[in-house]
Amino acid sequence: MKKKNQSSSNRYLVIGLSVLCILLMGLSIVAQFSSAPFRQVADVTVIPMQKGINQIGAWLSDLNDNFKTLKEVKSENKKLQAKVDSLMEENNNLQQERYELDRLQSLYKLDQNYGDYKKVGAHVIGKDSGNWFSTFTIDKGSSDGIKKDMNVLAGSGLVGIVTQTGPHWATVRSIIDDESNVSSMVLTTSDQCMVRGDLSLIEDGKIKFEQLENNDNEIKVGEQIVTSHISDKYLQGILVGYISEINVDANNLTRSGYITPVVDFKNLQEVLVITTTKADMVEKNDQSGN
């Protein structure tokens, strides 16, 4: 409102000065045809005043033009900012879609790696407090065929196991949780070991394994640890991680060390749930044997 009043005042001032200039121009013309004394007076008073008023009028006219230009520039800047905001939002959406596509491609690859098992995809919709997905909730439940003790996958291997279900949700305990114990084995030698969850270790990107027999089998850093065939809850052959450190225990009978897991337990958004439990598989095999 203030800018609008200022613009109107400038317009009226320019009009008034223009009228005054016209009058002074008329007096100047009259002075040219008048007697010498009158012309002298006009040269001293009217003509300098006329020039001054013309200069002021031109300055005010330029000021008014500049004000209009400023308004146009501000309007254009506003339009450009809106366009930039729109492009930034579009770019963010494209990046999110790309990240989601990468995750889905990883899940598809994981699904192919464990093609012998039927699976259901699910989104992570909740988790316990803390930085890590030690226990979390997914958006699939008993209505979708999810049952307790079903194995859960993400990344390149094992995430954990279903511990509780509702009609449209299920709770998963991951292998990094303090209460988690996974019967596992070294892929190349089939030597058995136990992988135990420890949230204090995952801060360093590792989990512990122990009870590995200290025999003649040479086991090196980088060896794959997978779920064991003797596990009562985990299906055989699911990748848990890679050995990052191995040592002989004080009793000289066993070895223990650390594993780098193949799942990012700090960022879980989608998972695959294997819809067959170990108990179901054992029962099926028993029936087939009979």
From TrEMBL:
One of its GO terms (biological process) is regulation of cell shape. It comes from the Bacteria. GO terms for cellular component: plasma membrane. Signal peptide: none annotated. Pfam families: MreC (PF04085). Residues 124-274 form the Rod shape-determining protein MreC beta-barrel core domain. The chain crosses the membrane at residues 12-31. Residues 63-107 form a coiled coil. Gene3D superfamilies: Rod shape-determining protein MreC, domain 1 (2.40.10.340), Rod shape-determining protein MreC, domain 2 (2.40.10.350). InterPro entries: Cell/Rod_1, Cell/Rod_MreC_2, MreC, MreC_beta-barrel_core. The keyword Transmembrane helix applies. Keywords: Cell shape, Coiled coil, Membrane, Transmembrane, Transmembrane helix. Belongs to the MreC family. Involved in formation and maintenance of cell shape. This is Cell shape-determining protein MreC. It comes from Mediterraneibacter butyricigenes. The lineage of its organism: Bacteria, Bacillati, Bacillota, Clostridia, Lachnospirales.
